[in-house]
Design brief:
Blueprint lengths: L1 H14 L6 H13 L4 E5 L5 H7 L6 E6 L2 H13 L6 E5 L13 E6 L6 H8 L3 E10 L16 H18 L4 E6 L5 E6 L4
Parallel strand pairs: 1-2, 1-4, 2-3, 4-5
Antiparallel strand pairs: 5-7, 6-7
Bound molecules: S-adenosyl-L-homocysteine (SAH) and magnesium ion (MG).
S-adenosyl-L-homocysteine binds next to α3 and β2.
Length: about 200
Amino acid sequence: MKQLLVEIEDYAQEKNVPIIEKKSIAFIMKYIKEHNVKNILEIGSAIGYSAILMASCKDDVFITTIERDEERYMECLKNVKKCGLDKKINVVFQDALDVNLSADLKYDLIFIDAAKGQYTKFFEKYKYFLKNDGVIITDNIKFHGYVGKSSDIESKNLKGLVQKIENYINFLKENQEFDTKFYDIGDGLSVSTWKNEK
Ligand code: SAH
Ligand code: MG
């Protein structure tokens, strides 16, 4: 298992796949154990690194993870199988904004780690699938330190993307339904829970 993880890390490095930072996944794994999280929905599987770590941190964790890039999806399937986790991780090959989950599915944890420009859309779409005592965790809310500094950025694309993350942060801060804590861990994590556990 450890060797397989190192191989996945090396592959990510080689192919420029943005996998989660070690400190961030450690935080999430601790959260999973402390809050007895069982059902997880992940938006953005990449090659399965975060899903594999979340699935292996506790016996009764089940994950549905969504990936729209075919090459990464295939690599993810392969890695999940190699780790013997295909009974605990269900990989879906689709754009997360097009997925139709059955309305009775509810998750303890929704992990948003896909296109940074679409964070608010993912949040608004998937909050309906969050349990009353569930949590939505988002990765990369610092975006390599650019967030909060969009006015200094010259590249138009980068500036636009960073502004979208800044908008997402404001959306969370002003949200009437959710309370959000922001953590300066790894590339920045946000942790959102329903206000007064509906
Ligand atoms: N969670 C992974 C890293 C994910 S990287 C880990 O830490 O190991 C982000 C991934 O989200 C990319 O592979 C990208 O293809 C995918 N992605 C981006 N937008 C998406 C969308 N709308 N639907 C599904 N996947 C998406
Ligand atoms: Mg990430």
